[in-house]
């Protein structure tokens, strides 16, 4: 089908591309100004499109469940650092509620350059297909895909096909997934782009990847029989290429943030050398105990230096080239290097690995008791190659290892296979089995943490004749709303506990409210400041997801001017926020403060909540909870490992001297500590609901939705349901 490409205006293409694979129907529709101005773009727009497409009967597997990709109005502007992001949105096959995942690279920018603010794909193709959006010709086509189920082989086939057709590598970007997305419900989507500066095999230029890893959207893609989505496009040219309302203001804002990144990063986190893996050392600090070790049982380990960013920076990362995942990002945190594979059918082959980022390094490293960086890179590569989320895979493996440790599982249950702490060979074998769905254990693990827990409980009860241990297992099966945790141990951060439990509506992920670091640094000393942070930080963080922006140049580069601000939360980096406001106002032609810009995020936060309420009904609030392991010590041994800290906390809330606490028995102390922490979390969640204008079951009130203007955008089915749940 042919279409007409429009020039960008205020960062928008003002068109949406809809593809129905069932009927092979393709439509290009205008983006309604009312929808655009209310939902902004990216995540907000994606959630709105999802909401309009689904009903209460829609499941993740339903043909009508759309898979949506949406950049935002500030995405794809290389004059400003960090404009790389695009959002993937769909009903999640892992959690059965809306799944949202952001990803970097060039895909979002090129989709917009090709003429679209969003791509929504519904239906299921009858054969494996590749969708091609050709911005040069103004043409959309659905073609047969190469019959290749591993991502990096598929990558080569796609590159060859389009190079042979005469396209320059720098003008092609694409999304893929692999066989692991077929055999698990947590498939990831790889976003491929050409990095012309990275030396490879004596020449320059290498295809790099970023992943939309969370919530299983690669599995939606594979279930629709989409092997790849290709966009052919190039950067817009001219005096004001992105149609900014005030191009000079945009460029000035970009220069300001560039300068701050350039001056601050080398003196602080050194993301340009260590990538996000540099965070390992911070989380591992003895006083923070926030690096998950052996399925979040422990929070620190002396071996952590072996897998930290400094080690990768000095031994494994290839620093040549730029390492920005989009032009203009001088934070350049997209690190990677070469490793020789030790397992699988490609064993012995040297491959390029993009990563590991912090989550993958902690997930396959400390949380499995493995302190071998090459192993972590290999596990990272296999997950990307199979198309499975590294975080979910690693956290499920950590749970399995603890099940073997505590003998909830034995070799007898799993046909002789075992997975123990530190066993690299078995860990790699398991990743291969998981991606291929080769064993009963791998198939149960591939469905979800929830299903796996039930599967292990049944095995244990059958083998031992003891009562079903499901409740015991749930204490350390690290998932919320079905989504396995990202890699932060939260014993010492009540804010982060509430973030995982309630403020993240996709399940236990840190995208909405990554509060752990600033909480540990002392940003939220009182209960009130913790509660406030659960509102203010998601506004900015998810607001960035609406705009097409990467959070790292804001969150990981502390603007020195922020330190001097008075009567405000300096940890939210207000001086940099003002630069972002200039960028926003310059592009969109508005005159808003950064606070007002990000307040708009409350609209899509409420919309996502409403879709969760549609799935969970009156029990919505019960899903806002985390396993005991995320709250505190789940056995007496674990209490005593951090005895000093735990005793001190006990002494504080019991108002008893430490000598008194020292005489108490550990079981009693642990019981009191856990009760106290659970109660604190419950109180914080209750305050969060109140601040949001939600009921004490976590259900948005009708008046709240009317007040923020969302009510008018809801479907009639949703309005009826929400009104009924509010007793109206
Ligand atoms: S900070 Fe890192 S992830 Fe973000 S846009 Fe820059 S290179 Fe990409």
What report would you give on this structure?
It is globular and about 75 Å long. It is α+β, with helices and mostly antiparallel strands and 728 residues long. The mean pLDDT is 97. Helix content is 42%, strand content 13%. The strands form four sheets. A six-stranded mixed beta sheet has the order 2-1-6-3-4-5. A six-stranded mixed beta sheet has the order 8-7-12-9-10-11. Strands 13-14 form a two-stranded antiparallel sheet. The protein contains 30 helices and 16 strands. Helix 20 crosses helix 28. The structure holds iron/sulfur cluster. The site of iron/sulfur cluster has 14 residues, from helix 21.
Q: Any descriptors?
A:
six-stranded mixed β-sheet, binds iron/sulfur cluster, single chain, 728 residues, alpha+beta
Write the layout of secondary structure elements.
Layout: E1 15-20, E2 25-30, H1 33-39, H2 42-53, E3 67-70, E4 86-91, E5 98-103, H3 107-113, E6 118-122, E7 129-134, E8 139-144, H4 151-164, E9 172-176, H5 179-183, E10 189-200, E11 203-212, H6 217-223, E12 226-232, H7 247-264, H8 271-274, H9 279-283, H10 309-316, E13 336-340, E14 350-354, H11 358-364, H12 373-386, H13 390-405, H14 424-436, H15 440-447, H16 449-464, H17 470-474, E15 479-480, E16 483-484, H18 494-503, H19 516-520, H20 527-547, H21 552-555, H22 574-588, H23 594-599, H24 601-616, H25 636-641, H26 643-654, H27 658-662, H28 666-692, H29 702-707, H30 716-725
Parallel strand pairs: 1-6, 7-12
Antiparallel strand pairs: 1-2, 3-4, 3-6, 4-5, 7-8, 9-10, 9-12, 10-11, 13-14, 15-16
Helix pairs in contact: 2-20, 2-24, 7-22, 11-13, 12-14, 14-15, 15-16, 18-20, 18-28, 20-28, 26-28
The structure holds iron/sulfur cluster (SF4).
